[in-house]
Amino acid sequence: MPLLTGKVALVTGAGTGIGRGIAARFAAEGAQVVIAARRQAPLDEVVALSRGHISSVSMDLTDRGDRERALDAVIQRHGKLDILVNNAAYQLWKPFLETSDEEITGVYATNMVATTLLIKQAVPHLAASGGSIVNISSTASRYTGMPSEYLSVYGASKAGLNQLTRTLAPELGPLGIRINAVAPGVTAGEYAMQEINNIPGHKEALIARTPLGRIGTPEDITGCVLFLASEQGAWVTGQVIDASGGWQIAAG
């Protein structure tokens, strides 16, 4: 039986990569999924994957009005919100001293401030349904060897998201809301592969340090997200789960 039959989910940053994979997997498991991102064309492509189960709304995560409109769209279309997946992020791979003030501010504004505010705005809806939140973090939040070089600002923002996940769990639990995070390792996506392929030999080095011997795919991440979002994870909250092919074991 599908794991998410009757559930309604909002997935941010779902036009490409991991977010796209999560939306498709949730739809296949019976959920009604509203996907949100800034670029309409990728959203339209994801909607086409499962017409009748996926719809879209344009949203700039850093804009309060956009966040409110996205939540309103979910309620107007489906009457409730059961699952919030915070996947939208500002990815930045750059030496710290070459990073501009605007880039630093943008990373934290998106990955920490706006995500925190969306969670706060969504809490009344999730409390009404006894819902769950899954934050998409990164192994760069916990490990400083490759591939975390040049990810200092991004990694710090995701470390903050990890701690938010842990500290909100006891506050949201009495409201009937579970909150967890998945921390992907190197995963094939629009931005990640562009950066990896820019450096000769980098991809091969990453694979060599991964016990399962390959770059991850969005589908590798969706199973963890599905478990945490579904009733199979009903006794799990406040956790950050690495999904990295064992990279952290090899990299320490």
Can you characterise this structure?
The protein has helices at 17-28, 40-47, 64-78, 101-129, 152-172, 190-197, 202-208, 218-229, 247-251; strands at 8-12, 32-37, 54-58, 83-86, 132-136, 178-184, 240-243. It is α/β, with parallel strands linked by helices. A 7-stranded parallel beta sheet has the order 3-2-1-4-5-6-7, sandwiched between helices. Helix 4 (101-129) packs parallel to helix 5. The radius of gyration is 17 Å and the shape is globular. The relative contact order is 0.15. The mean pLDDT is 92.
SSE blueprint:
Blueprint: E1 8-12, H1 17-28, E2 32-37, H2 40-47, E3 54-58, H3 64-78, E4 83-86, H4 101-129, E5 132-136, H5 152-172, E6 178-184, H6 190-197, H7 202-208, H8 218-229, E7 240-243, H9 247-251
Relevant terms:
alpha/beta; 14% strand; 7-stranded parallel sheet; 252 residues; 9 helices
Q: How many runs of DSSP E, i.e. beta strands?
A: 7
Straight-line distance between termini: 39 Å
In the sheet with the most strands, the strands line up as 3-2-1-4-5-6-7
Mean pLDDT: 92
Rg result: 17 Å
Note poorly predicted spans: none
The fraction of residues in strands falls at 5-15%
Number of helices: 9
**Could you state the order of secondary-structure elements as H and E?**
EHEHEHEHEHEHHHEH
Fraction of helical residues = 40-55%
Characterize the overall form: globular
Largest sheet: 7 strands, parallel
Helix/strand-derived category reads: alpha/beta
Write a compact overview of the structure shown.
This protein is α/β, with parallel strands linked by helices. 46% of the residues lie in helices and 14% in strands.
